[in-house]
Amino acid sequence: MGTPGNTVEAPVGESESRVAPLLSIIVPIYNSEATLASCVDSILSQPFRDFELILVDDGSTDGSSALCEMYRVQDGRIRYVRRENGGLSAARNSGLSVAGGSYVSFVDSDDEVYPEFYAAAFDGLLGRDFDLFMVGMDRFKGEWKFREVDQKRLSKDELYELFLTTNYVGLSACNKIFRRQILSENSLEFRAVRFAEDLVFISEFAPHARRVVFDPRPLYSYKEHPASMTNKAKTTQLMDDRDFEILNALDLTSAIYAHQQNDHASSCFRVRAARSALRLLVLMYLARAYRAEEFRGVRSYLREGTRDFLVARHQRLPLKAVVLALRFVPSSLVAWVLKRRSEPASVQQ
Known about the structure:
CATH class of the largest domain: Alpha Beta
Radius of gyration: 21 Å
Number of strands: 10
Structural class: alpha/beta
Number of helices: 14
Order of helices and strands: EEHEHEHEEHEEHEHHEHHHHHHH
Strand content: 15-25%
CATH superfamily of the largest domain: Spore Coat Polysaccharide Biosynthesis Protein SpsA, Chain A
Helix content: 40-55%
Largest sheet: 10 strands, mixed
Number of domains: 2
């Protein structure tokens, strides 16, 4: 019925003979009272109807629990899971443990889905025979230079390129739909990492996906949270341990691709790792937060990924110029700049 510590509330009036839905949509929730209604409403208003919606309350202390209960009573497709706070990965795994659909999808509680998302997957021209279905994310549509509108099947190389080297398709699990049988047969779930858990999850799923369909329309609405790492570094000039967790996720994912022995996939991963390392380096500068060990990890991923980054077709020329320049700037000089900027003003004088 669920993982230990879960309380699963079935929809009102549900019987034991309930027919399994085609799709299970899992929404992890933590103190999301302000955004939860718009998120859930965007799902319930879908013209595609053959789904169950699993709301996983990860120990919220605001009004989220009451909203979940209200929706459960109102709509027979909704299941409500209550659990002690354990983080995003644990909440998603709790949803997976009770999911009954042939496919699973994830939506973050501060995001929304466009009306065409699930219909595109299951009522589209290419039919329902896929292991992985992907759409674009509206926040990054300005970065997408191609203008296709028709769905297409992807080769494994195309999958890795879109997933790892673009933001439009990108690392998120939320603009994707997964065949649940692949997850269960390979014991795949979200790892207990605090940042970039989707990168690890999809990297472990991808080798098993033989049939991949991509709809190039931006059908998932991603909202950047005011407390995101980027906004926090810009506005408060603060970074904490969680902000550096991306390096742990990159280390874990690097081992996954080394084991897979797929040269193209490994090249695409090095592009993503270099881009993530560059972003972290910029945030360290903005937040005046120099850490020697983490800086060495950043420099390592930048060096290893330079060549792949320069030939990657989805990376912008200005970013390529920055990565190339950093390849020739001595690490000691970059470290000195970061350390100098991190020192209190009284020390610098």
